Amino acid sequence: MIQPFTAQPIRFVAEDGQPTQPLPERYTPELLRELHRQMLQGREFDRKLITLLRQGRTSFYAQASGMEATQIGLARSIRAGHDWVWGYYRDQVLALGLGVPMFTLISQCLGTNSDLCRGRQMPHHFSAREHGFVSISSSIASQVPPAAGSAMAQKYLGTDEITVCTFGDGATSEGDWHAGMNMAGANGAPCLFVCENNQWAISTHIRHQTASENVHVKARAYGMPGFYVDGNDIVAVMEVCTHAAEWVRAGNGPALVECLTYRVGSHSNADSDAEKHYRTRDEVDEWLGRDPISRIEKLLEDLGHPVSSEERADLIAQTHRQVDEDVRRAEATGQPDWRIMFEDVYSDLPDHLREQANFLRAEMGPELGQGGQG
Ligand SMILES: Cc1ncc(C[n+]2csc(CCOP(=O)(O)OP(=O)(O)O)c2C)c(N)n1
Ligand SMILES: [Mg+2]
C-alpha cells in the first residue's frame, strides 16, 4: 500500500537493480523492456537535440538527462490524450512518453512551418493539443494557477479527466505555486501536482530554496496528501503516480508527488560549466551512479532478460535515425514568412497592426515584402 508523507522516498528497486520489495505483477519483463526503451529513447533524443543546438539550428534546449524515470514513469501513470498536462520546459521526455511525436517537438525547436506555433514561441516550449499537453510558459510556476483552474473546470463539468501539473523544485518558492496549490486544495480540484525535484534551480540548491525538510511536506498546508518517491526508480514512480492519479480521479481532491531525481547535465545551453561554478564533479558522479536507465538494465539482467549490447546499440541508432529524418522533414517545410506575426489572432486586423504590417512591408523591400494582408 502506497502511503503519503513517508520519511524516505518510496522505492521498489535499489540502485544496484535489486528489488527492495516484491514488484507488483504488472512489471513483466516485456513491460520493463518497454520502459527501458522509452527512457533510452528520451536520453538519445536529448543528445541529438544538443547536437542541433551546437550546429546553430536551434537556440535553446534544456536536457532531461538523468530524469527519465520520473518523466516516463509519470507518462505511464496517466491517461494520455485524456488528462490535461500543464508541464514545464524540461518535460520533453514526458511528452514523448505521452505519445507526442518527435516531429512535433523538433519542429517547435526549429521554428519551421511544421511548428504548430510557427516559430512564435521560444524554442523548446512546445505544445500538443491532441495529447492534452498545454503550451509551455518560461515563467517559473506560472502554469500552477491555471492548472488548478483547469482541474476546477473538470470537477464542475463532472468529467473523469484529471489535470497533471509538473514543475521543478525551484518553482515551489514562487508565489504562483502557493496560490495554485491553495486554490486546488480549497476547491478539491482533481489536480495531480508532480515536483520533478532535481535539486537545483540553475545554480540555487534546494537547501536555499526552502527551509522545509523537502517539498512533499508542503502538501499538508494545502490539505492534500504528499507522496515522496525515488524519482530514478521507474517502478516506484509508476506505482506512486498511478496510485495518486487514481486517488485524484476518484474525486478525493488534489495530491502532490515529489520525485527525487537529479539533472546530470547543465541547466540549459545558457549554463555551461556547472561543475566549475556551483556544484562539484563528485556530486554529479555520485548521481551518475544512480542512473535510472542503468538501474532498470541491472534489474532486467537479474531477472534473466538482459538488454544485449546489440539491442541497446540498435535502439540508439533507431532514435538517431528518427531524429535525423524528422529534422530533414521539418526543415523541408521551410521557415515561416514574416507576415505570420500578424496572423492567427484577429480575423480582421485592427488599424494599428495594419499600419505596422505596412511599415514592415516597406522595410522588407520589394522582393520580400510582397503580398499579405494589411
Ligand atoms: C518567474 C521566473 N523567475 C526566474 C526565471 C529564470 N529561471 C529559468 S529556469 C530557472 C530555474 C528553475 O528551476 P526548477 O524549477 O528547479 O526547474 P529545473 O530547471 O531544475 O528543471 C529560473 C530561475 C524564470 N524563468 N521565471
Ligand atoms: Mg530543479
UniProtKB/TrEMBL annotation:
Q: Which EC number applies?
A: 1.2.4.4
| Reaction catalysis annotation | N(6)-[(R)-lipoyl]-L-lysyl-[protein] + 3-methyl-2-oxobutanoate + H(+) = N(6)-[(R)-S(8)-2-methylpropanoyldihydrolipoyl]-L-lysyl-[protein] + CO2
Q: GO molecular function terms here?
A: branched-chain 2-oxo acid dehydrogenase activity
Q: Which UniProt keywords apply?
A: Oxidoreductase, Thiamine pyrophosphate
A biological process (GO) of this protein is: branched-chain amino acid catabolic process
SUPFAM superfamilies for this protein: Thiamin diphosphate-binding fold (THDP-binding)
Fetch the InterPro entries from UniProt.
Answer: Alpha-ketoacid_DH_E1_comp, DH_E1, THDP-binding
Sequence ranges assigned to domain Dehydrogenase E1 component in this UniProt record = 37-337
EC supergroup of this enzyme: oxidoreductase
CC cofactor: thiamine diphosphate
Say what the protein does: The branched-chain alpha-keto dehydrogenase complex catalyzes the overall conversion of alpha-keto acids to acyl-CoA and CO(2). It contains multiple copies of three enzymatic components: branched-chain alpha-keto acid decarboxylase (E1), lipoamide acyltransferase (E2) and lipoamide dehydrogenase (E3).
Q: Which family does it belong to?
A: Belongs to the BCKDHA family.
Q: What is this protein called?
A: 2-oxoisovalerate dehydrogenase subunit alpha
